[in-house]
Write a structure and sequence with these properties.
heterodimer, A: alpha/beta, Rossmann fold, four-stranded antiparallel beta sheet, 10 strands, B: alpha+beta, 2 domains, two-stranded antiparallel ribbon, 15 helices, elongated
């Protein structure tokens, strides 16, 4: 479903050029739960930004469901980003002064979806926040805020949920709960999740681990063609 | 994304930053309301001056001694004026169908005294047809009659304020009034025969006393020229309605030049329209000046909106990043900030209109110093102020909105 071929991305900082991605090729199928691991500066976040259409590759091909998306206009990328991807960030990235329900409605507003309220409420129920619908970020715990962010990523029925260090700001127990929630989404709903982390315990929830260093993939525990097969044999 | 959705987002952002929004609104409200109120004052002044000129009567032509003769005041002016009552009679006797009535008079500052009360009043020495020419209505008694003209009677008709001041709560008809002339050197007693109905606007008639010119001329010989004509300081010619005023002016002017045996006029002749034109020109300049002052404050208010929107974009970089991540296009972001600026300025415009109109209505009729303020609210000034406010809001929103779209969503999301 996602196919990167020889993707390069170079940043210029002063006189030095940083090869954030140095010819990366990667294929991810529907229903996979992939952890991308690496030190900071290894290029894992850059790769996630490119996959999530937040950034463009300098070189190489990016095919999403067989369609080349590298050459799309900014407007088309924004529209596709809203429908194909759900983002979960380390710092929750919720808007202040908005209730959980409104946070989750937000992506639907930009898609011009009717019936937003019901769909947003359903997404919140799915992440176990049925009783927190009217709460604002300041009235929610870190774990609850991250669940709101997960509900917001799910509400558009995305092809892929992209989670960038989703447990980075949470304590171990809460982080474990959030990861269990993400695992359940893959196991029970066939969701595709790409997880960026540097913590092995978090990466352990995924079925497949891609390890990066200096803009290159140095290890890939395997490409499982179907989610259910992968699910059966890869849990450590 | 529907208009309703963007409006909702805008209102949320405005409400979320209550104090900031309020201060921004204040700039616009002051701008819009001052445009409306200042233009209303300007237009009111114009109306006040026009009313005052129209209050002198209708279809009038005024003839006065030329500047050389009027540089002297009081009795001195009288000895240099070349206008005479004979001129007035000649104009009337000319048989011009465009002329309805002619009245000549002398005005002079006098002190009016009745019992223990006294008031400074302008005395108008004139004849029985003055009331008709100047459209004066009688509230009590009667105006000067032709028989008074002929007999040279010492009778007086009072302006409404003079009557109120001198005879509070008393019927003034039949009472004695004394008028002192030439700084109190000469005092004559007159019998009050009438009171003129109060004249609206800032007309002078309320503060005047009208007496027959013949009664006075019999006592002041210097009012006569060596050839025995009675000198006057003004002749009023009333034209018949619909007459060509310019033509009448020319005819009267020719007649006077002939009578005075001169080639260049020793008098000035002006129609009411001439006075109105001159007055409106002054008042229009005032209106424009006031409007420009209001416009500047509106501009300052608009710059305030731009400033606030720019601050808002910088402050909300993270919010913009989040919205981009969940699928907002650059257009959606522009839309959001422009809508917000527009909502602020439209709201400011509406509040400004209300305050501007209310302020204009409150000021109307109030006396500032010794000047009664008149305001006339102009529909076009409301439309213009609102239009400019909304336009300024739109323009003020566009640049910050563009700034918002160039925010890199990745950097914005890191900006926690």
């Amino acid at each position: 479903m996602i196919r990167l071929e020889g993707v390069r991305k170079t940043f210029t900082a002063g006189d030095t050029q940083i090869h954030a991605l140095d010819g990366v090729s990667l294929e991810i199928e529907r229903g996979e739960f992939v952890a991308i691991m690496g030190q900071s500066g290894s290029g894992k976040s850059t790769m996630m930004n490119i996959i999530g259409l937040l950034d463009r590759p300098d070189d190489g091909a990016y095919l999403l469901s067989g369609q080349d998306v590298a050459g799309l206009s900014e407007h088309a990328r924004a529209r596709l980003r809203g429908t194909a991807f759900g983002f979960v960030f380390q710092s929750y990235s919720l808007l202040p002064r908005m209730s959980a329900l409104e946070q989750v409605e937000l992506p639907l507003i930009y898609q011009g979806v009717r019936d937003r309220r019901r769909r947003a409420a359903e997404a919140l129920v799915r992440v176990g926040l049925a009783d927190r619908i009217g709460h604002r970020p300041t009235q929610l715990s870190g774990g609850e805020q991250q669940r709101v962010a997960i509900a917001r990523s799910l509400v558009v029925d995305p092809l892929v949920v992209l989670a960038d260090e989703p447990t980075g700001a949470l304590d171990t127990a809460t982080g474990h709960e959030v990861m269990t929630l993400l695992s359940d989404l893959v196991d029970q709903h066939g969701m595709t999740i790409i997880l960026v982390t540097h913590e092995p315990e978090v990466a352990a929830f995924a079925q497949r681990t891609v390890r990066m260093r200096d803009g290159k993939i140095v290890e890939d525990t395997g490409h499982q063609p179907t989610a259910n097969e992968a699910n059966a044999g890869s849990s450590p | 994304m529907s208009v309703f959705d963007s409006l909702r987002i805008a209102v949320r952002a405005i409400v979320a930053n209550r104090l900031r929004s309020l201060l921004t609104l204040l700039g616009l409200v002051i701008g819009v309301s001052s445009v409306i109120a200042l233009i209303a004052v300007g237009q009111g002044t114009q109306k006040g001056v026009s009313d005052q000129i129209r209050g002198l009567g209708t279809d009038l032509i005024f003839i006065e001694p030329s500047a050389a003769a009027t540089t002297q005041q009081g009795a001195g002016a009288l000895t240099t004026t070349t206008l005479t009552q004979a001129d007035a009679l000649a104009i009337a006797a000319n048989g011009n169908p465009a002329i309805q009535a002619v009245s000549a008079h002398i005005t002079g500052e006098t002190q009016a005294i009745a019992g223990a009360n006294n008031v400074g009043a302008e005395s108008v020495f004139t004849s029985s047809n003055y009331a008709e020419v100047r459209d004066l209505e009688i509230a009590l008694g009667s105006f000067i009659a032709p028989s008074h003209d002929d007999a040279g009677s010492l009778v007086a008709v009072l302006g409404s304020r003079v009557a109120e001041t001198l005879y509070p709560g008393i019927d003034p008809i039949g009472q004695e009034i004394r008028l002192s002339f030439l700084a109190g050197r000469v005092v004559f007693a007159f019998t009050v025969i009438g009171v003129v109905r109060e004249v609206g606007g800032a007309a002078d008639a309320n503060d005047q006393v009208f007496v027959p010119i013949t009664g006075l001329a019999n006592r002041f010989r210097f009012l006569y020229t060596p050839t025995g004509d009675l000198r006057v300081t003004q002749i009023d010619v009333q034209t018949t309605p619909g007459a060509d005023t310019e033509e009448v002016k020319q005819q009267v002017s020719d007649l006077l030049l002939f009578r005075h045996n001169r080639s260049d006029p020793d008098f000035t002749i002006e129609s009411q329209d001439d006075l109105l034109d001159a007055a409106s020109e002054v008042a229009n300049t005032l209106s424009i000046l006031l409007g420009v002052i209001g416009g500047i404050s509106l501009l300052v208010g608009g710059i305030g909106v731009m400033n606030i929107m720019l601050v808002s974009v910088t402050e909300r970089t993270r919010e913009i990043g989040i919205r981009r991540a969940v699928g907002a296009t650059a257009g959606d972001i522009v839309n959001q900030f422009v809508t917000e600026a527009l909502a602020l300025s439209v709201l400011g415009g509406i509040i400004g209109i209300v305050i501007g109109v209310v302020a204009s209505l409150l000021v109307d009729g109030q006396t500032v110093g010794d000047q009664e303020m008149t305001t006339v609210i102009q529909a076009w000034s409301i439309a213009a102020a609102f239009g400019v406010s909304a336009g300024v809001g739109l323009i003020s929103g566009i640049y910050p909105a563009w700034r918002a779209t160039v925010v890199d969503p990745i950097a914005a999301l890191r900006n926690e």
